[in-house]
Amino acid sequence: ATAAATERFTVNFTITNLPYHSDLENPDAAKYKTTRRVMNTLLDRLLKDSSIGPTFLGCQTTAFRYGRERQGDNTVVDAVCTYKKEPSTTALDRVGLYREVSNKTRGIKELGPYSLDKDSLY
Hints:
- With 122 residues, the chain is α+β, with helices and mostly antiparallel strands.
- It has one domain (5-117): Alpha-Beta Plaits.
- Helices cover 25% and strands 35% of the residues.
- The chain is built from two helices and five strands, in the order βαββαββ.
- It has helices spanning 30-48, 94-104; strands at 5-15, 56-69, 72-85, 110-111, 114-115.
- The strands form two sheets. Strands 1-3-2 form a three-stranded antiparallel β-sheet, covered by helices on one side. A two-stranded antiparallel ribbon has the order 4-5.
- The chain is globular, with a radius of gyration of 15 Å.
- Residues 5-122 form the SEA domain.
- InterPro entries: MUC16 (IPR028850), SEA_dom (IPR000082), SEA_dom_sf (IPR036364).
């Protein structure tokens, strides 16, 4: 039997109720560490409860960026998620997964306590 390879995909979205702060660029800052841990947990919960749940391994937030949107100073979140790709399975259904995430975030509006820019999920 061939061992399952791991595959990665990136997730990017904008949080509209988390004002950007320069501490979010500093991996040693308490604000960065706390926000990263919360993001990883929220993304993990979201995707574990999706169609890729059985093969889902986890997400790691890789960066927070300043996001200037219509309503002011927002924070853009970049994350990389990993799953096991079994040789027998088809490629990741990105469109289907996007729809699931959209439904689970009320139309890409909410992730836990955070409000999302509905046009920002990639």
